[in-house]
């Protein structure tokens, strides 16, 4: 994406993200309607009609789980969807200020921590102030979504850890 094709790529990407979200929402709506027709009130009864593996897509997961600062479902932009779903080991993003790079990194970090067993996510920042801001943003995203975590202040003065425990561990 560059200045010559931005408008077309942005429109194309927005339609792609909207379609992903709409497909998932339609599956949920159909399952609820089917349950009502069958006289069942429990949403668990229609789980087989919803493809829950779609929640492995961080964009769909963020929309269904995370809440933005205005109290709405967190809807990522098209370029954020492209970045967050990149499967390469290293992803380099060169973009202007205030376009959502930090939010994208926060969503990716939380999603990775929750969906990858024994995941360790290291977030390094150029300045201590920025590192603190990113960690605070992650904490607030998790609090708004009611994701349980423990904060651990490390032995080193400038390190903080967030621990997310797997509730299904035995």
Question: What are the SSEs and their pairings?
Answer:
Blueprint: H1 6-37, H2 58-65, H3 78-84, H4 101-115, H5 128-144, E1 150-153, E2 160-163
Helix pairs in contact: 1-3, 3-4, 4-5
Assign the structural class, choosing from mainly alpha, mainly beta, alpha/beta, alpha+beta, or little secondary structure. Answer: mainly alpha
Radius of gyration: 18 Å
The number of helical elements comes to 5
Widest sheet: strand order?
A: 1-2
- Summarize model confidence as the mean pLDDT: 83
Description:
- It is a single chain.
- With 170 residues, this protein is mostly helical.
- It contains five helices and two strands, in the order αααααββ.
- It has a two-stranded antiparallel sheet with strand order 1-2.
- α1 (6-37) crosses α3 (78-84), α3 crosses α4 (101-115) and α4 packs across α5 (128-144).
- It is globular.
- The mean pLDDT is 83.
Short description:
Helices cover 46% and strands 5% of the residues.
Q: Which key terms come to mind for this protein?
A:
170 residues, two-stranded antiparallel ribbon, mainly alpha, 46% helix, single chain, 2 strands
